[in-house]
Amino acid sequence: MAFPARSPRWALVALAAVGLLLLALMVSLAVSIGEIAIPLATTAKAVANRLFAADFELSRIHQGIIWDYRLSRALVAASAGASLALCGAVLQALLRNPLAEPYVLGISAGASTGAVCVTILGFGYGVLSLSGGAFIGAAIAFLLVGILAAGVGGTSERVILCGVAGSQLFSALTSYIVTTSANAEQARGVLFWLLGSLSGVRWPDVYLSAPVALVGLVVCLAHVRALDAFAFGKDAAAALGISVRRVQVVLLGTTAAMTACVVSMVGSIGFVGLVVPHAARFLIGPGHARLLPVAALFGAIFMVAADIISRIIIPQQILPIGVVTALFGAPAFALILYRARRTA
Q1: Where does the sequence pass through the membrane (predicted)?
Q2: For the residues 2-6, what does the mean pLDDT come to?
């Protein structure tokens, strides 16, 4: 049941508390579940040994699996989910389109092209990693789409169309490079990464993804009044004293940077930025002061849960996390659309 627009503060605090507890539970399960099952008590001891200099006796294997692999993976998943959901909520308000999501600007396709240029063509190899190439490709894609959108008028509809055009262009470039230049092993590796993979993330990725998500949340929260005003259109926002052009540049640039950071680490992961903001809006209402932090929290929970499912759904095999988010996100979005149609 959705919270009314003027929900008592205690109800919102209760929702946030439940969400944080659920996120902590998901992270704990993500650390414990895998090919080697680890009890939650052992996980707590390993974390205490590292963070609080405790002296619990643990095997080096368990300590390494928990701290060096699974915990960093879970935290990157949470940060990526929060970033994608936050970007989706902002873009849906800014572009006034319920189908807007982080990849609408062609960022994912550009990151894919950048990644294959490094891994297959060898551009910058030895200086750039796959993630570095993906980030540069994402930035170039956003810049080109932004220039194209500004040239055709910069309206919300045209920004989306320019994003679609950019996505198709960079997707075609990626397919061309893989088809003409990659061997079977390279093509398999790139395909797995493009579908979304958390297998290669480690603590340096946590140190980047978590601050990016936090800074992005702060920037977006600083513009909640403008986002609420955009619900009535750009002209209405301008009439309320909002600097429309400045807000668009700041928020589009922020969402592009956050999405590029996520894609450069974990590849293309769809439906998080599309489904989660709608679910949060259904529960908490359209006010962005409440919607943005709740969407970020729900996105983190959704991504960590998807990572757990990707590791247990098929024995002895890890599915790309983008496949899991699509399998669960597509039916969820269809249900949201159906409920919206019934209540319209």
Answers
A1: 74-95, 102-128, 134-152, 159-178, 206-228, 249-276, 288-306, 318-338
A2: 52
Non-local (6+) Cβ contacts of 190 within 8 A are: 115, 116, 119, 120, 178, 182
Tokens at residue 16, please? 């946030």
Q: What is the rounded distance in angstroms from the CA atom of residue 256 to the CA atom of residue 274?
A: 15
| 241 conformational bin, left if phi > 0, alpha if psi -120 to 50, beta if neither | left
- pTM (2 decimals)? 0.90
Query: 3-state DSSP call for residue 129?
Result: coil
Q: List the end-to-end C-alpha distance of the chain, in Å, as a whole number.
A: 16
**Number of helices followed by number of strands (H, E) in the chain:** 15, 0
Higher pLDDT, 77 or 54: 77
Interacting residues of 3 by C-beta distance below 8 A, sequence separation 6+: 11, 12, 15, 283, 284, 285
Is the distance from CB of 295 to CB of 274 less than 8 angstroms?
no
For the stretch 182-201, pLDDT in tens is 888 878 877 777 788 898 89
Cα-based distances in Å from 237 to 76, 94, 216, 218, 301: 36, 11, 22, 21, 33
Q: Is pLDDT larger for residue 206 or for residue 44?
A: 206
Query: How do residues 99-142 score in pLDDT, each as one tens digit?
Result: 788 877 788 888 889 878 888 888 876 667 777 888 888 889 88
| Distance (Å) of CA 275 to CA 86, 256, 285, 291, 319 | 11, 18, 15, 13, 20
DSSP state of 43: H
Q: If we measure between CA atoms, which residue out of 201, 206, 204 comes closest to residue 82?
A: 206
Could you say which architecture CATH assigns to the domain 16-343? Orthogonal Bundle (1.10)
Please choose, from the candidates 142, 20, 27, 8, the residue with its C-alpha nearest in 3D space to the C-alpha of residue 77. Answer: 27
- 330: which 2 tokens? 């597509």
